[in-house]
Design goal:
ten-stranded mixed β-sheet, Immunoglobulin-like, 147 residues, 2 domains, 1 helix, single chain, binds copper (II) ion
């Protein structure tokens, strides 16, 4: 009988300690933690003043996120979220950014499309992209033209 209550008390103490650690460290809180990197733009070989923007979005957090919008600092430049389905580019409302993973915006996959870019944009030209995430809010990154 004594042994049983001792074990029970131990379990309760363990539970309280585990909960306290969880609250302090945020384990299991389900928050995304994003880092953007390697942003590049490349001009379309067929369409005038159109470029594809690519980059890595690393989510090291415990929560899923979603890229839901994009803006560019240039006047009259339109930025859209695109994906490739059945070998065709389509405009999409959002791009998933799952927890503990890397979402790569790339040619032939999900990407950012820039339309109406200034004429004569040369190699090395830079533009600031503002990406909107459903949970992490707005993040900015500088993209460099590589062609
Ligand atoms: Cu596109």
């Amino acid at each position: 009988m004594r042994k049983k209550s001792y074990i029970l008390i131990c379990l309760v103490v363990l539970l309280v300690v585990a909960t306290a650690i969880g609250l302090v460290t945020g384990v299991g809180s389900g928050e995304p933690s994003l880092a953007l990197g390697g942003a590049e733009m490349s001009l379309s070989p067929v369409l005038l003043n159109v470029a594809t923007a690519t980059m890595d979005i690393v989510n090291s957090g415990d929560g899923d996120d979603r890229l839901v919008g994009v803006r560019v600092d240039g006047p009259r430049v339109i930025a859209e979220l695109h994906d490739v389905k059945d070998f065709r580019m389509v405009k999409v409302d959002g791009i998933p950014v799952p927890r503990r993973g890397t979402t790569t915006l790339r040619h032939g996959g999900p990407h950012i499309m820039l339309l109406g870019l200034p004429k004569g944009l040369g190699e090395g030209a830079q533009m600031t992209l503002s990406l909107s995430f459903a949970r992490s809010g707005e993040r900015q990154i500088m993209a460099k033209l590589i062609n």
